[in-house]
Design a protein that fits this description.
The chain is mostly helical. It has one domain. 44% of the residues lie in helices and 8% in strands.
């Protein structure tokens, strides 16, 4: 159980929470601009670093306990959707779709927070000897 600290689970949960946070901001921005003339909705495109052929790894881990080397910069981009306009003013925000995405993202975020909390509670139990 103590080795769980080094398994990467907490780091993976932290990264997933950061992604959900970015997505929340983009969706909220789309909702806030639902009536802005010529506004184009935006989406977050996350890049899978392992499938990106342009990334060259310059370092090699020699022991599994070492900290992972990471790519500098963000692993996402915000892209505008140029699909047809839903409104006469050139705006293409579909409020129903955005609200659905917002709810889905919130559920995912809450599940990640619960999982993170469970991990910390498990570590606390181990450190206190079950007390």
């Amino acid at each position: 159980m103590v080795l769980d600290i080094f398994s990467g689970t907490i780091s993976n949960l932290e990264n997933a929470l950061a992604r959900a946070n970015v997505k929340q901001k983009v969706i909220s921005n789309n909702i806030a601009n639902v009536d802005t003339p010529n506004y184009k909705s935006k989406k977050v495109a996350f890049h899978d670093m392992l499938n990106d052929a342009s990334i060259k790894l310059d370092a090699k881990k020699t022991y599994q306990g070492h900290i992972d080397f990471s790519k500098t910069g963000s692993n996402y981009s915000v892209v505008s959707s140029n699909r047809t306009s839903y409104q006469e003013n050139g705006n293409n925000v579909d409020i129903d779709q955005e609200m659905s995405e917002l709810a889905k993202n919130q559920i995912q975020y809450n599940a990640l927070v619960e999982r993170m909390s469970g991990k910390f509670n498990s570590l606390k139990t181990v450190m206190t000897g079950g007390k």
